[in-house]
Amino acid sequence: MIRVGTLYPSLLNPGTQSTTIATRLPFSSTYYSQLGAISNDTDSNNNPLPITLTLAAKYGTVDLGSGAAPAGVTSTFGPGNRSVTLTGNETAIKTYLLNYGYTPDAGYVNANTTGGALATGAVAPDVLSMSVTTANNPTNPVTGSLNLVVRASDNKPYITSALPEQTYYAEPGVATETAITLTLADADTQVFTNNGSTGARITATSDNPNLILPADLATAIGGSGNSRTLTLKHQPNITGSANVSVTVNDGTNQNVYTFKVNVVPGPSYYWGTLTNTAGSSQITYDSNGDLIALDYTNGAVRRITPQGASTLLKSGFTTPYGVAIDANKNFMFPMVITASRRFPTIH
Predict the structure, then answer these.
(1) How many domains does the chain have?
(2) Where is the domain boundary, 89, 117, 151?
(3) Cβ-count burial of 274 within 10 angstroms (0-12 exposed, 13-18 middle, 19+ buried)?
(4) What is the pLDDT of residues 237-296, one digit of tens each?
(5) Residue 345 falls within a domain, yes or no?
(6) How far apart are CA 118 and CA 324, in angstroms?
(7) Closest to 215 measured CA to CA, from 200, 201, 199, 195
(8) In angstroms, how far is CA 142 from the centroid of its own chain?
(9) DSSP 222-269
(10) Are 115 and 164 in the same domain?
(11) Domain termination site, one of 92, 121, 151
(12) Which range is least confidently modeled, 2-6, 60-64, 79-83, 282-286?
């Protein structure tokens, strides 16, 4: 008896790899025969099926060096170069992977100088995720992964989480924004004091004391272990920008992380009472940002601007309910007795 089934591809996995903070890890000839994929199936001419191999990292970027792709191999990078997809002959792809490299994000570290656990607590290593498909299983990829250990180069404390620019709206009162996550990493210091003045500590300052009060920053750091937070408050009805600096000091060494905070005028809202929409059972909005309100009681449809001005668009309907606008800017709504009605919008 001959059994016939799908032959699935397989991944070549070199296992855990290690590099130093801010240092590119090349998958050179040392790992050549251990990174890639095998189709495990052939076409009608007995040639290996082409493969589609994707390699992706979370806390770093990937590259293929500066060499040109071999004939018949295409490469496509994902957003931020955190992933690459290679399609083509398995042998040619393996050759191209001689140029493959991983570079951890700036400041990212997940191990001490020898590759062991950080004193501040374990940080999960970055993971290189791998998946491969072929023509005989395009929707069921074979997946795998390997750990990417990024060692500290010294005993300085680090914040490994991103601190991107922040933009907030000015408010009538003091605004307390959502806490920002700070992931702490230190090779040899375990305990850090929030908002401390001496010893191992984490503190925050700003160059615009009118926008963000020093007194508020003096208590802005929270959390414990390697999971800390920064909670920002800004003053009422004040707009502007500030550079906020978070300093991590272990009593001997320190790193300072600075990011920009913008406070901009808030959008204008109409808070008055909307008239002539009694019994309205549903609202939607048009491409101009106006509300389209269904007046169930009076059998009408009205347009209401952000300033509260109400305009009658159509009347004379019997108990209409539900309203929508289609891609051609037509109003559509059902009525109790008749079927769905459609009327062109009024511009």
Answers:
(1) 3
(2) 151
(3) middle
(4) 999 999 999 999 999 999 999 999 999 987 655 444 444 444 545 677 777 777 777 777
(5) no
(6) 56
(7) 195
(8) 25
(9) EEETTEEEE--EE-TT--EEEEEEEEEE-SS-EEEEEEEEEEEPPPP-
(10) no
(11) 151
(12) 2-6
Cα separation of 46 and 329, whole Å? 56
**Are 190 and 207 found together in one domain?**
yes
* Beta-carbon contacts of residue 207 (< 8 Å; ≥ 6 apart): 242, 243, 245
The pTM of the full predicted model, rounded to 2 decimals, is 0.68
Give domain status of residue 4, yes or no. no
Q: What is the spatial distance between Cα 66 and Cα 75, in angstroms, rounded to a whole number?
A: 13
In this structure, which amino acid lies at residue 10?
S
Question: Token pair 């007995």 is at which residue?
Answer: 46
Angle at 182 between CA 226 and CA 185, to 5 degrees: 40
Q: Do 22 and 127 share a structural domain?
A: yes
Residues 255 and 196 in one domain: yes
Let me know whether 244 and 146 are in one domain.
no
**Cα 284-285-289 angle, rounded to 5 deg:** 160
Q: What is the pLDDT of residue 343?
A: 43
132 and 179 belong to one structural domain: no
- Structure tokens of 106? 């700036």
Furthest-apart CA atoms within the chain: distance in Å: 83
Name the one residue in this structure whose structure tokens are 């060499």.
Answer: 67
Assess whether pLDDT exceeds 50 at residue 341: no
Residues 26 and 135 in one domain: yes
Domain-embedded: residue 257? yes
Q: Which residue has the higher pLDDT, 337 or 114?
A: 114
Asked, for residue 3, whether it belongs to a domain, the answer is no
As a dihedral over the C-alpha atoms of residue 285, residue 166, residue 104, residue 223, rounded to 10 degrees, the angle is: -110
pLDDT tens figures, 134-166: 988 888 899 999 999 999 999 999 999 889 999
Q: How far apart are CA 218 and CA 21, in angstroms?
A: 31
User: Phi/psi at 90 (nearest 5 deg)?
Assistant: -60, -40
DSSP element (H, E) containing 126: strand 126-134
Q: Residue 205: which domain range? A: 158-264
Q: Residue 119 forms beta bridges with which residues?
A: none
> Within this chain, do residues 33 and 107 fall inside the same structural domain, yes or no?
yes
Find the mean pLDDT for residues 87-106: 92
